[in-house]
């Protein structure tokens, strides 16, 4: 499926895409609806040989809204999402990539995945994955919940305000340097931990 312009709104219903979803332009307003993508969700453009910058916007502002991605999620949107990702759940069964190739024209695009409020990214599935931010000091997760025992690699560092690991250890160690974050539960780090900047709040324990 391709969204290249206008606005798509599930209107409280469930929209299922068995393949991948290319969001090259226009707005996707989830509201209280659900979008389930069997493959990748790419908030990018495609010129026939390579992915590039997208003019698209993803709006998740309702607690009941849900986007489920069976593959990878990647954003290279030219638009700031500082007020667009404030509620709802983005469930990922693959990797996450934030790029900002339009930043030289508009620095605000570095915030193309700046989640806030009650917005949550939920990691599920059995695949080993990377969570990569090109601009970790600007974009980031509001809440990150890990509901998988598969290895999760945080690149270049953990980038969330709140972390819920559900007893799953951070198998790639832990580096904190981009964003203040607090624990919502006990957390086990399987490897080394580096605090290189920002603030770590131990509301419970880290071991």
Name some characteristics of this structure.
globular, 21 strands, 0% helix, mainly beta, 9-stranded parallel β-sheet, 207 residues
SSE diagram, text form:
Blueprint: E1 2-8, E2 14-17, E3 21-29, E4 34-37, E5 41-43, E6 45-46, E7 51-52, E8 57-59, E9 66-69, E10 73-75, E11 89-92, E12 96-98, E13 120-123, E14 129-133, E15 141-146, E16 152-155, E17 160-164, E18 174-176, E19 181-183, E20 193-195, E21 200-201
Parallel strand pairs: 1-3, 2-4, 3-5, 3-8, 4-9, 5-10, 9-11, 10-12, 11-13, 12-14, 13-15, 14-16, 15-17, 17-19, 18-20, 19-21
Antiparallel strand pairs: 6-7
Descriptive account of the structure:
With 207 residues, the chain is mostly beta strands. It is 0% helix and 40% strand. The protein has no helices and 21 strands. The protein has strands spanning 2-8, 14-17, 21-29, 34-37, 41-43, 45-46, 51-52, 57-59, 66-69, 73-75, 89-92, 96-98, 120-123, 129-133, 141-146, 152-155, 160-164, 174-176, 181-183, 193-195, 200-201. The strands form four sheets. It has a nine-stranded parallel sheet, with no helix packed on it. It starts with a strand and ends in a 6-residue tail after the last strand. The model has no long low-confidence stretch (mean pLDDT 92).
Count of DSSP helices? 0
Structural class: mainly beta
- The gross shape turns out to be globular
Oligomer: single chain
């Amino acid at each position: 499926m391709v969204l290249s312009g206008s606005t798509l709104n599930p209107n409280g219903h469930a929209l299922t895409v068995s393949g991948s979803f290319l969001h090259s332009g226009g707005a996707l307003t989830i509201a209280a609806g659900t979008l389930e993508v069997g493959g990748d969700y790419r908030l990018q453009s495609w010129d026939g040989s390579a992915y590039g910058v997208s003019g698209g916007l993803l709006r998740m502002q309702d607690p009941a809204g849900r986007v489920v991605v069976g593959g990878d999620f990647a954003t290279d949107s030219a638009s700031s999402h500082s007020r667009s990702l404030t509620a709802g759940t983005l469930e990922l069964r693959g990797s996450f990539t934030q790029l900002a190739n339009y930043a030289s024209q508009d620095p605000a695009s570095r915030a193309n995945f700046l989640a806030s409020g009650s917005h949550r990214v939920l990691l599920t599935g059995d695949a080993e994955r990377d969570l990569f931010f090109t601009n970790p000091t600007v974009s980031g997760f509001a809440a990150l919940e890990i509901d998988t025992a598969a290895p999760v690699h945080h690149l270049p560092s953990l980038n969330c305000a709140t972390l819920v690991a559900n007893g799953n250890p951070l198998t790639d160690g832990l580096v904190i340097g981009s964003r203040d974050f607090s624990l919502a539960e006990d957390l086990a780090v399987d490897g080394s931990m580096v605090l290189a900047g920002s603030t770590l709040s131990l509301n419970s324990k880290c071991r």
